[in-house]
Amino acid sequence: MNQRQDASQRRPAGGVSRTGKIGDGAERHEAIYHSISDAIIEHRLKPGARLREDALAEVFGISRTGIRKILQRLALEQLVTLTPRRGASVTRPTADEAQDVFDARQMIECGLMPEVARRITADEAQELRDMALRVRQALRSGEQSAAIKLSAAFHGRLAQISGNATLAEFVERLCSRSSLILAVYGNVGHLGCESHDHDDLMSFLESGNGERAQAFMGRHLKAIEASLSLHEEGVEAPDLFEIFSGY
Amino acid sequence: MNQRQDASQRRPAGGVSRTGKIGDGAERHEAIYHSISDAIIEHRLKPGARLREDALAEVFGISRTGIRKILQRLALEQLVTLTPRRGASVTRPTADEAQDVFDARQMIECGLMPEVARRITADEAQELRDMALRVRQALRSGEQSAAIKLSAAFHGRLAQISGNATLAEFVERLCSRSSLILAVYGNVGHLGCESHDHDDLMSFLESGNGERAQAFMGRHLKAIEASLSLHEEGVEAPDLFEIFSGY
DNA sequence: GCGACAGAAACCGTATACAATGATGGCATC
DNA sequence: GATGCCATCATTGTATACGGTTTCTGTCGC
C-alpha cells in the first residue's frame, strides 16, 4: 500500500525553500517535473501508483500549489491520470490506447524519415550513433529502466532533426506513453528496441536513403509492437496477493 | 492577520454552495475553458491579446486559482503563451510554426483518410455532411468566425472516425492552432476551406475511396496553406468585459 | 526637448487556510 | 454472524493573503 516514508529522512531534495534565490523557481519546477516524468518513464513509478499531492510537496520541498501545476502538465501529456476528488495516479494505458499509440508512431515516425534523411548532418548522425551506443550499453548491462529512457530519447531526437517542432513534440509524447505501455504490456527480457536496430537505421539515414529508413522504421516499430502482450487483462479478478506481494 | 471572523461569515451569501449542485464546479471550469478557447478560435480574442488573470477572474466570477489552471491548459495546447512574470497572451504563431502545423496536418489528416473511408458509417457521413452544410451557411452569411470554428470541428470529427483517439486529439489541436494561424496570416474573404471542398471529400469517403479522399485532402490543405500570406495584423487591447458579456 | 531615474501601481508566483467530499472503520441491528 | 448506517479521517478543491518583479508615469537633470 502506501509506502510509508521514513519521515525522519524527509529532507528537501536539494537546498530549498528560503535559500535566497527565488529566481530559480521556474527551473526548480522544471527539474521537479523531469524528476517525476523520468521516474514514470523509467518505471520507478509504475502504472496505477497513486501520487498524493501532500507527499510530493513534502518530498520536493515546495507547496501543493506547485505540485498541482506539475501534475496537471503530466496529465495533459497523459502520463498521469487525474480523477476528480481522488487525486493523481500514474496512467495505466488500455490495450486500445496502446494500439493507438503505436499506430500513431507508425504514421508519424515513418513519415518523418525521408525528411530526416534529407536534413541530417554528420554531427547529428554522430550524436545519434552515440545515443544508440548508450542504449546498447544499458541493454547489455541489464539496466532496463535506463535503456527504455535512452531509447525514447533516441526516437525523440531523431524526430527533432526533421525540423518540424510540432511533430517532434508529438513523437516525444508518444515515446513517453510507449514507456508506460511497455511497463504494462511488455515482457521482461524482450525490450522493444533490439540491439542494433538503431544502428542499422542510422546507416540508411547517413546514406541519405529516406525510403529504406522509412521502411526500416516501420519494421522496427512493428517489432516492438509484436513483442507486447496486448491481450486485455482480466479486470474482474486480479490476483491482489501477487500484485502487491512486493509491498 | 487571519481574520477568521470573515471566514465564518463567508458561508452562504453568494449561494454558490447553496444552489444545490456543488458538483458543477468542474463543469463550470470546463465551460469557462470552452468560452475562452472558443473566443480565441473565433478570433474574438486576437493573437497577442493579453489575458490578465485578475480580469478573467472577475469576468467569470471565480478566483485566480481556477483561471490559472485553465490558462495553463490552454498554454499546453499552444493557444496561449505564458511568459514568466508577464502573464498570458493569445499565441501569435510564427511563420515557421504555421508551416510546421500545416505540414503536420498534411501528414496526419491525409494519412488518416484511408482508415476513415474504411470505417465511416452512413450516420456518421450524414453528420459530417450536416457539419459541412453549416460551414457553407456560415460562409455565405459572412460569419467568418463561426465558419472557422465549424470548419475546425469538421476536420476534428473526421479524424475521430478513424478510431484512433490519440491521432484525433492531435488533429484537433492542429486545427485549433490553424485558426490562430488564419487570424494572423489569413486574408479576409479568402477563408481556408472552400465552399464545397468538404462535400467533395465526403463523396470520396462515402464511396469508400480512401486513396482519392487522401489525395483530395492533400490538395484541400495545400489550398488553405497557399491562401496564407505573411502580413501581420495590429493588435488592439481587448475588452474582456465586452467579449464575455454574453456569459 | 529628450533621456534617465525614482516612486508607485499593477500583476504574477507561491504558500497557506478553509471548505467539501470520498473513504474507512466501528457500531448497532437484524 | 453479516449487513447497513454513521462518525471520523484523509485528501483534494478553492480562495485569499503576501511578497517580489515588472512596468508605467512623472519629474528632474542635461
From TrEMBL, chains A, B:
It comes from Halomonas aquatica. PROSITE patterns: HTH_GNTR. InterPro entries: GntR_C, TF_FadR/GntR_C, Tscrpt_reg_HTH_GntR, WH-like_DNA-bd_sf, WH_DNA-bd_sf. This is GntR family transcriptional regulator. CDD domains: WHTH_GntR. The keyword Transferase does not apply. It comes from the Bacteria. The lineage of its organism: Bacteria, Pseudomonadati, Pseudomonadota, Gammaproteobacteria, Oceanospirillales. The keyword Transcription regulation applies. Keywords: DNA-binding, Transcription, Transcription regulation. Residues 1-24 are annotated as: Disordered. Residues 26-93 form the HTH gntR-type domain.
